[in-house]
Amino acid sequence: MTVAEQSFTPPPGTAPIVQLKGIAKYFPGVVANENVDLEVMPGEIHALLGENGAGKSTLMNILTGIYQADAGEIIIDGYQKEFATPMQAIAAGIGMVHQHFKLVQAFTVAENIHLGWSETPRRASKAVLENRTDELAKRFNLDIRAGATVSDLSTGEQQRVEILRVLAREARLLILDEPTAVLTPAEARELFRALREFVAEGNAVIFISHKLDEVMEISDRISILRGGRKIATRQTRDCDPHMLANLMVGREIVLDDMRHRAEGAAQVSVEPVLVLDNVSVSSESGGNGLANVSLKLHAGEILGIAGVAGNGQRELSQVLTGVRSASSGQVIVDGKSMKGANAAVFAAFGIGHIPEDRLHSGLAPALSITTNAVMREYGQAPVSPHGIYNPRSAYRLAREIAEAAEVAIPDYGMPVRNLSGGNQQRLVARREMRIADKVLIAAYPSRGLDVGAINTMLRYIVELRDAGAGIVLISEELEELLNLSDRIAVLYEGRIMGVVDNDNLDIEEIGLLMGGRTAAREVA
Amino acid sequence: MFGSYRLQRLPSSHAGIALAARVAAIVIALLVAGIGIALAGMNPLNLGARVITASFGSAFGMEDLGVLIIPLILTGLAVAVAQQVGAWNIGAEGQFYAGAFAATAIGLFVPGEGPLILMLMFVAGMAGGAAWILVPTLARAYANVNELITTLLLNFVATLLVYYVSTGPWRDRSGMANSATPPLSTDVPSFWGIVHWGFPIAIGLAVLVAAVLAFSRWGYEVRLVGSNPSAAKYAGIPVRKHLIAVMLLSGGIAGIAGMLEIAGTVHRLQGGISNNFGYLGIMVAVLARGSPIGVIFSGALMALILNSGIILQTQGLTTSIVLAITGFILFLTAIGDELSYYRITREKA
């Protein structure tokens, strides 16, 4: 029987390579994993599926010794193990290839393979290392140029180096975190071939992905995580993408519908307040950029943007707020083209922006709370009439914002990074709401927050909608999008896969669109 | 059980601890120097007493200090200003020379005397310093070339340029000195012994810069750019424009230091005129934690240390000991700054 046809049924009595029992991990205010059981058998490719924040990374970090579990046990080949360091996990035959490679760019492939490896010869010339690397590459049937410098390699080649480095250390379980995200289709096929050969020798692979199609193609079994817990483990042959999307997103979504308007709330406007007309943005760092995106946002509505992170969300929020300019197409606010306008002009037009990483782009962490709070209004009276910055007025404004955000601040002069993430986010949100007369672009407003803080954040957004602003809500939490949005657009690889009305919406359809499958039905 | 002690890293450094660490760094460096001097067979306490009486015991000593403070405050201010926008100006030495060179050119070749020429020399000094940092500034702003290296390398060019003109085309042909230009006919007037008006100018500039940074819209934007360029971009602040303006200002301030040195203290241009003031300015700025007002105090401290070296030299010690002490202070300060992020906690076992 060929490898590809091998449908997975381990012979009775086979011991799993890895068995996780009742794994739990808690971070302050967050349950990252709870009561997770997972068995990985020799010879199988086991897919791990889940939304962002479902606990996949934490679970793998526990398995590879980066984190230590708060409860539960790890059993390798029948023996209970505890990994205090990643080194111990590697010694036990568990290797991981991370989404962001950990290679030394200036070193050759051979040098990277031998870096920090106990079996590296004490005194080794370049030639010796390259010969050893060639032998390893041949043994594992991976196409690698041992003498090449890593920075000259394509991402696919770099990934092979990462894989070879793990395999060379006698890994029996290979964990791959979203391995195809950076690959061309041809490279992905090549990777799949190598993985099948690897498990055919009695090894195993844990394959983390969001892409339903490729999970269906490559895996033998699939485990689904949601909210830190394992929801199910299924034979792949018993699965279909619809069912997986269902399991991943969850049926029991708590429909705390915030779409209902209070009396006196602003109506959805007839004319759009913000229009993206065929906008393309080139990507900055290997991301997706945006390709010919057209969207309309009306005043008084919430437009949700669904999609797996990294599919153009950052570029979308930046182009909508003037942080980045479109390479083609145009952004139109209230019928006026914003060509050439920078972020300050957008802000002056009444467009607020809660950025996706508040500490990196929404705040200056080392500067005071006051300095950060006035970032949008420092240029006008009362903070700086006639160009003179008045620290007392700035302090008064900062206090006003903090009071609206219900954040108790002992000292407005202390660096803003001393505040908790939730309080930082509340301050940023309140600061932006003050200027967002027309539009608020909120990128992952609840990311990294606990339940209470998330509720506050969503309440803010509803409040602003009822006041008549148009809101673009970018989120990876489908539940959040479903509860708030009037319409939902799905972003995949920089394109809008479809815009659907949030009435009688089919969750499966959203799940499929997020995984890159075009829906049969589209509502413009 | 007693529990175990653990170092915990805090999100921000404690200002009080950082200040204490600076004091401790100076004390430890002096102690080590004292031990070295004692090992060399001299009495460090006697030498210390002599340094103190020579520095503060007479008007002459105080005047020497006053003259030394001027360039140290200004080069320190130059480095500190660049730090505000997130740049490291290691080239204050070169900009100092460039400023001195440009001011000398005015003094030697523009006929006339008096305040007008002095004013011209001042502007030329500032422009010379700014011109010297122009290329590193544009390279950083448009091509993200690390200014640390470019500003440093241009120091050697400026140093050699000044050596060349002062021993070559501009040398004093009257036969009195072969390695310097003729004395300048226009001076910065003195107001107390040999201490000239550069003293209040240096302190005034430091106060002015501090005030602009703290109390102007522009200063707010510069602080934001220096602290987090992405946040500045997010707020729509022209990051590149501010970077260029502040770096040129930094070079200009170092240039003023050079102009005041030739027009107020030395009265002619000669090689080696900077006495490492540009490099010591880095140290002054670091000791001041990049604060323009702090530079006044750390500049004074550095002047005291330099002056001690000159006094020690008269006692048969080499001035290298001062360089060793200053280096050691900087080293210990860096350690102290890092440590001010930590606190010791006790965990119950």
Automatic annotation (TrEMBL), chain A:
- In the UniProt record, which is one GO cellular component term? plasma membrane
Kindly indicate whether the keyword ATP-binding belongs to this entry.
Answer: yes
Instruction: Offer an example of a GO molecular function term for this protein.
Output: ATP binding
Q: Could you tell me where this protein is found in the cell?
A: Cell membrane
Asked whether the UniProt record includes ATP-binding among its keywords, one would answer yes
Which membrane topology describes this protein? Answer: Peripheral membrane protein
Task: List UniProt keywords, sorted A-Z.
Answer: ATP-binding, Cell membrane, Membrane, Nucleotide-binding, Repeat, Sugar transport, Translocase, Transport
Q: Read off the SMART domains from this record.
A: AAA
Residues annotated as domain ABC transporter: 18-252, 274-518
* Superkingdom classification of source: Bacteria
Protein's UniProt name: Simple sugar transport system ATP-binding protein
Q: Which organism is it from?
A: Roseibium marinum
From TrEMBL, chain B:
Please verify whether the record's keywords include Cell membrane.
yes
Which GO terms of the molecular function aspect are on file? transmembrane transporter activity
Q: Which UniProt keywords apply?
A: Cell membrane, Membrane, Sugar transport, Transmembrane, Transmembrane helix, Transport
Gene Ontology terms, cellular component aspect? Answer: plasma membrane
Q: How does it sit in the membrane?
A: Multi-pass membrane protein
Query: What Pfam families does the database record attribute to this sequence?
Result: BPD_transp_2 (PF02653)
Which chain regions cross the lipid bilayer?
21-45, 65-82, 94-110, 116-135, 147-166, 194-215, 243-266, 278-305, 317-336
Location within or outside the cell: Cell membrane
User: Is DNA damage found in the keyword set?
Assistant: no
Question: InterPro entries given for it?
Answer: ABC_transp_permease
Write down what this protein is called: Simple sugar transport system permease protein
Protein species of origin: Roseibium marinum
